[in-house]
Every structure is written in C-alpha cells, then in structure tokens.
Design a protein that fits this description.
Elements: H1 2-14, E1 24-39, E2 44-46, E3 50-64, E4 67-84, E5 89-91, E6 98-100, E7 106-123, E8 130-150, E9 155-159, E10 167-182, E11 185-196, E12 208-220
Antiparallel strand pairs: 1-3, 1-12, 2-4, 3-4, 4-7, 5-6, 7-8, 8-9, 8-10, 10-11, 11-12
Length: 221
Amino acid sequence: MTHNKNIIIIILAALPLFSPAQNFRFSAFADPQITWMQPDNGIAESAGIRAGFDIGFEMDYFFNENYAFSTGLSINNLGGKLKFHQPVEFRFRDNGETVWTGPGDIVIYRLQYLNIPLGMKFTTRQIGYSTYYVKLGSTGHINTRSSADISALGIERRTLEDEIGPVTFSYHFGAGVHYSLGGRTALTGGIEYKNRFVDITPNPAFRTNLQSFAIRLGVLF
C-alpha cells in the first residue's frame, strides 16, 4: 500500500511541471477495470477475470483543433486467473520456495505496472456541453510488482521470482466524452480496451497475454 501511495504522489507532483499553454490539455483519472489472461497453448486456460484500477494522468498536445498527440503516466493494478492442465514450476522471491502446480490448480496473478502510453486522440467540436473523442495507440508497461495465490497449495500473495517479464507492450483504443463544467475544466467518461501484444511471461514454453477493459473516469483541465 505504501508503495502505491508513493507512486501516486509522484504522478500528482509531476502535473505542475507541464506547460499550461493553450495547446496542452491535462486530465487526472482513476479507471476501474476488469482484466484477464489468455494463454496460447494447452498448458493452461483462462479461469476468469480480476478487477483492478488504473490511476494516473494524461497529457494531450493539440497540433490541430481536433487532433492531438497523447501520452501520460499511470500505475496499473491488474491480473488474471489461470487453470493449469500440466505441472508448472513457480519460484517465490520472499522465501526462496519452489512449488509445482498440479492438474486443475488455479493460480491468481496480482500484477502492477507503470504505464507509459503514446497515441493519437481525435475530438469533435463542442456540441452543447459535450465534446466526443476517440483514441488509439500503444503503451509500454514496466512491471513493478507481481505476486500469486495458489489456494490448492496454501500460497497467498507470494512474490514471484521471474515468472513475469519486466516489460511488455500493448495496443489500446477507446472512446468517450468530455462534459464541460465551464472554462477549460470538464468531466471525462469513456471506455478503453488494451491487449498486450508482447507476452507477459519470459518462459517461451508458456506464453500468455493480458487483456483489459476499463471505464475512464477523470477530470480534464
């Protein structure tokens, strides 16, 4: 929890460093999301979704009235559940223990990433109080924490040694609306989908990607 608070403080502290020029727009957001893992082999299968939050800020640079480059920074807590059909080895950093899953064991992954997106944003002219947008691009994800629960083996929130890679990448697209509160301030609501196109696991024999669907809730300045 302290680790999360420190990252959020850093993100918020960085906001005043950016220019408030007319071509720049900034938003702070806290997006609830559902995530799931999708293996591409017969070793395991997806066993359900997990809920999480993506919290951070976004910066849009408008090089045209309706077109912008978009980037930002966020801390993303997410994960997934896998049901294993074959034995797989797990190593844990906090106690040096090594265990093997059995057929039918379910592993719950708890992951945290630092997200750095880069993309394009397209907006309409303001219609009444609302401005609509679509966005697309790619995101780099730096793993900052990974742990797992394996209830069949009595394991809960153990830190994984090297089962999750340090970096992965995804593509994203989304759409939403900015609702003006007057001046440059607006409420933001929308949806966004991310799909990691780089495997999140370093083991070439066990490849899986991570997907998420989020609801954008934020304030635009």
